[in-house]
Structures are given as structure tokens and as C-alpha cells.
Amino acid sequence: MSYLTLSLTLIFVLIPIILSKTLNLGLEKDTIIATVRSIIQLLAVGYILQYVFDAEHFIYLSLMILLMIAAATQNARRKGASIRGITWKLIVTFIFVEVLTQGILLGLGIIPPTPQFIIPISGMVIGNSMVLGILFLNRFTAEVEDHQDETELILTLGGTPKQAIHRQLINSIKASTIPTIESQKTIGLVQLPGMMSGQIIAGADPVQAVQFQLLILFILLTTAVVTSIMLGFLSYPTLFNERMQFLKFESK
After folding, report:
1. Burial tier of 95 (Cβ tally within 10 Å: 0-12, 13-18, 19+)
2. Do 161 and 244 meet the contact criterion of CB atoms below 8 Å apart?
3. Helix-strand-coil split of the chain, %, nearest 5
4. pTM of the model
């Protein structure tokens, strides 16, 4: 695709801007900002990846993954600002998920140990983990705030912090993972996933493209569940003090 052809795709940006202006939705500024940022960020990443792929050096690979984790943490931490130490909890979660998935993929020889495979898959893993982290933190902070009286009552009756927060924790984990599970039920029927579509457009064998897409789907399923559970169990103890008393909670 040439830059001239790419410029024609801006028609798909003009359509929502025109509709927003016509209906007074007020989305024009955000749409333009999002478009400009996506162009700059993706082009920059494209040139960086080209350099990393050509260099094939472990240090550059590691720096790229650390940059992804840092960006994901910065974005997700805003949703959990009410939880003490949420920044390091997110970092630990993202690193664990990345090490777990890449350890299995490389350890079992499912993918070759090259930047061309590791970086794109890491991006999908960390990006999905970030989204799931945001979904979990949104739901968890809302659940905790809405059930503060119930939590304090269970503690008053002799319950432990884990028992007092159990229902809110489980509900939040389930709510954040359901979209991933439900979307996989209709993969191939309602939608053709991005990775599979990209490979097919590039001329890859459709069956081979399906195999790679299944790999990604299974990885994202693990990512979703592990992220929500790990973040949940790292977060809930900070809602209580050393005397097992519930700290008044107010989401931000």
C-alpha cells in the first residue's frame, strides 16, 4: 500500500467527524487527536521495529517489551488510582503474564526465538492484559464502593478480609473475563480476527492463518483470566489495615 492509497483511507475518519458535527455529538476534537496520534505512533513504531528486526539483539528486544509494559501500566493505573500501590501491582501482573506466555511459546518451541514473532505476540499479550486490567479495576472499584456496608458487616461478624470482599472480587473477575470468552464463541462466524485477516490479505495460506489465529486466541484467553485473578488478589489486601479493618473506599 502506497502513502497515496493510505491517505485515501482518511475518508473513514471524515465520516464520523461529519456525523458528529451534524448531530452535535462533540466528538470531532477527540477523533482528530486520536487519528493524528495513531498515525504518528504507528509510523514511529514501524521504523523502530524495522531497526529492531534488522539488529536482532536481545537488548533491543527487551527494551521494546519494557516500553510496552510501561505504556500499558501508565494507561491502566488511572483506573485503579484508589487502590494503594496499583502501579507496581500492574507492573508485576504484566511481567508475569508476559513471562508465562513467552515461556510456554519458546520453551515448547511453538514459535522461533526471533523478534519478528516475540514482539508482535508480546504486544497482543500486554495490550490485552492492559484492557482486561482496566475492565477489572473499573468493575472492582465500583463493586467495593457500592458494598462497603456489607463488607464492614461481615468483618464485624468475625469474617476475614478475604471473606468480606469475596463476592465483589469474584464478580469483578467474571465480569472482566466474560467479553474475551464470549467473543471467542463467535470467532469465524461473526468476525474474522485481525491477525488472520492480515495474513490472508498478505497472501498467506488461509489454513496456516487460522492456525496462528488459534494460537493467539488461546494465549489471550489465558491472559484474560490470569490478569484478572492476579490483579484482584494483589489488590484486595490493600483495602484493609493490619488490624483487618476495612479502609473507607472512594473510587476516583
Report:
1. middle
2. yes
3. 80, 0, 20
4. 0.80
Cell numbers describing residue 5: 492509497
Condensed to tens digits (0 to 9), the pLDDT of residues 159-207 reads: 888 888 888 889 999 988 888 888 777 776 556 566 666 666 666 677 7
Roughly how many angstroms between the first and final C-alpha of the chain, as a whole number?
A: 44
Length of the chain counted residue by residue: 252
| Range list of H helices, 147-240 | 148-156, 161-185, 194-201, 206-235
- For the record, the C-alpha cell of 67 comes out as 516500553
* Rounded CA separation 26/23 (Å): 8
In angstroms, the CA 240 to CA 246 distance is 5
CB neighbour list of residue 75: distance below 8 Å, 6 or more residues apart: 130, 134
